[in-house]
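User: Before I run my own analysis I want an independent prediction to cross-check against. Here's the chain; please return only the C-alpha cells and, at the end, one sentence I can use as a sanity check.
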Amino acid sequence: AANAGASKVILVISPDYACPKWPISKMAEALALSIQFVEQPYAKEGLGHAIMAAQPALGNREEFGIILPDNLVFPRPQNSDLDANPLAILWDLYQHNPKVGRAPLVAVQPVGQKNAPRFGIATTYRVGVPSPQLPNILKILRMEEKPANPDPIENYALTGRYIVSYDLFDALWISSERIPYNELQLTTALNSLAIRNERVPGVWAVEHPGIWIPCDTPDDLYTASKLARRHVRR
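Assistant: C-alpha cells:
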C-alpha cells in the first residue's frame, strides 16, 4: 500500500479473532502510513460487508484501493519489485490512462477452466495490444464469484487488488438489498458496475506480471513461504 502511494490504511478486522494491533501499527508507522482499525459487525457476511464497514473511515475520498491480504504477489526473478505490486500498477493506470476513464480497475491473471470455480472470475474482451510499457488491459463483460460453469475458453481470476470509486458503495447497497442475510460478494457489486454504463464507464481488468499465490490451499501456503524467504534474501 505504501509503495503504491497510499497515506492511510483502513484495516477491517473480525470481532471473532484477536488482531495484533500493536505490531501492525508499528509497521505502518515505519512506512509513514496512518492506520485505522475498523471492526466488521457481521464477520461471516462477506467481503462486500467488510468494505461497507470501512465506508465511514474513508471520509471524503473519491477513490481508494482494496487489498485482500490472503492473496500474495511476488516478483518474477527476471522482473522488478513493481511486478509484485499490482496495486501500484492499477493506481498509475487509473490516474494517467485516458482509456479507462477513471473506471474501477481490478488485477487479474488467467486461470484454466478447471481452477476457475475457486475464484472470482472475469469474462473479458481484449482492448488493443499489450506492450512492454503497458500491461494487458481488458474490458470486463461480466464477473462471477466461483462460477459453477466457467467459460471453456477464457477465465481471468481476480487476484485481490482493486482501485475503485465511491460508486462502489451504491452498488454494494443495492446488492445487499437483493440478497439480504447472505454473504455479500465484492464481485457481485463490481459485476453490476461492469454491465451498466451510466455514471461509471464499466470495469476494467489489468493482467499483471507477478507470481500470484491465492493462499487457499496447503500447497499455496508452502509455495508462498518459499517465495517469501527468497524475496527477503534479495
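Sanity check: The chain has a mean pLDDT of 85.
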